[in-house]
Design a protein that fits this description.
It is a single chain. By secondary structure, the chain is an alpha/beta fold. It has two domains: about 90 residues, Rossmann fold, CATH 3.40.50; about 100 residues, Rossmann fold. It is built from nine helices and six strands, in the order H-H-E-H-E-H-E-H-E-H-H-E-H-E-H. Helix 4 packs across helix 9. It is globular, with a radius of gyration of 16 Å.
Length: about 200
Amino acid sequence: MVAIAGTILPQIEGWTAPGGPGMIVTPEALDQAAVLVGQTPLPALDGVIVAAFGDPGRETLAQRLTCPVVGIGAAAAIEAGIGGRRFAVVTTTPQLEARIDALMRGRGDGAYLGCHFAQGDALGLMAEPERLDAALLAAIEEAARAGAEAAIIGGGPLGEAAERLASISPVPLVAPIRAAARALLHRLEAGPDGR
């Protein structure tokens, strides 16, 4: 995730929580991650990207810190809906559908059409990139048939899959890490009022 964001932001460091879920696949894990991220002691920073798709802890950090704090989920939704595009989320975590829907609705100009899920266990798919890509591509195709003009690959750990699938997707893909990096760069370039 750091390498992907680093193609847009000139200086970036990664931080991983020392505890909590290895991958967020349930609402309970998302809530646990929100507490961990929100309470994280941080040094002075220019900006923060919360690189988990549900943006756990982003609001708490934004209230605590004086720098911009961007979540990859909200940034992706805003970018996907530019120009009024209809968009969908494609991901591996069906238990998070209600949380994803809540995060996507009302962001940007576009019309959010809902989630489409890769078939298979999320952790198992992550262990096999070829199988992951095939399952995500099938879900992207399903989203396109449902009217999506763009698809968000929903998840920070799915960042590399988004990179691999961009050239073969039937609709434009929005990679959340890149979307968040662009959003943070824009806010940093806007200066203090860009917070």
